[in-house]
Structures are given as structure tokens and as C-alpha cells.
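User: My instructor asked us to take a sequence, write out its structure as C-alpha cells, and then describe one feature of it. I'm not sure where to start. Here is the sequence I was given:
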Amino acid sequence: MARRLGLPLAPVAPVRLCPLPSPLYTVLLGYKESPVAEARLRFGSMVRALFSSFLVGHGDRLEATIGGRFDLVALVPSTRRPGIAPLGLVDGFGHDVAAALPAAHWAADLLQRADVPGGSPPVAHMRPHAAAFSVPAPGRAAVTGARVLLLDDTYVSGARSQSAVAALTRAGARCTLIAPLGRVLRPGRIALHAEFLRRNVV
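Assistant: Let's start with the prediction itself. The C-alpha cells for your sequence are:
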């Protein structure tokens, strides 16, 4: 993946492990996919609470990992949905992030998907692409020299998140740390995932 991007991979600090299937995966799909508005709101409040608790409890450790306070908090855009990332649409989410990391600027719309002829995104599972996302001109001044916390709901292969980091790096970010809510594991299909869970999850 690093070879495809031409950059070192950014560190990842997941909020929770998310085996398939699991109640957490139901939440991570439901907050943006459920056809029932009440369910989306309920799942969204769970997403908000999990992230808030993690940032309040571990924000200092995350900042120590990258050598200083975060300057910006950004979101990984969806590769399918136009506009702001689904996390940015969760009511109160930005407020909670700002409360947990008061020194950082909340920049939910900092990153944008690249416009690709035919509408097919250049990033796919296990296939990152350095041009999949961009930082539009108005946001570049804030990114230059910044330490960025990049939030996402899931981390599967890391192709989307690491491609987003590449865009931030091109725009001048000093460093980026990725914090996905759920690190997706497939113990039924991937032996290494099954072994990891057996050894590390009580």
C-alpha cells in the first residue's frame, strides 16, 4: 500500500475492534444505511458517544504519538456519497470533538473526493490511490504544517483512509494519525484475524 501511494503509511489508532459479524458493525452500518430515520438517529448517538469517550480518555496519548497537539480534525470522505462524510452529519458530533480536543480546529469538509470521469472513484479495497481525494485551495493554508487527526467510521484495508492521508500530505500536513471507530476484522475468512482475536480478546 505504501508503494502505491509513494508515502509511508500513517499510524492507526482504532477506537474498537469490529469483528464480522458484531453489534458494533450493525451500528456502523445502521447510522448511515438504515432506512428508518429513528434507527439512524439512535445508531448515530452511539457512534457519537463512542468517539467522544475515546477522545476524552485517550486524546493525550494520541497527541503524544504524533509529537504535539492536533491542529485539525478532519473526516475521510465517502467514496460513494457526495458531500460531507457521514460522520459529519451525526448531530452534535463536531461539538463533541471540539470539546474533547479544544486546541484543534474542526474541519469536517476539509477533504473532498476527486472528480473522476465516469464517476468511478480511483480507490478500492486494498487499492489506495494518491489522487483519490484532495484539499481544495481554501483549506490548504490551515493544513500546511498541521498535525491532523483523521476520523473515519471503519477501517478495513485502509485504502480510503491512507489515500486521504496522502492528500493531506500533498497539501503540506506535518503528520496525520487515523482514528477509525471500528477496525474491521474477518475471523471467519482470514486466519490471522481469527488468531489475533483468540490471543488478544478475552
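For the description part of your assignment, you could build on this observation: Residues 112 and 134 are 5 Å apart (CA to CA). Try explaining in your own words what that tells you about the chain.
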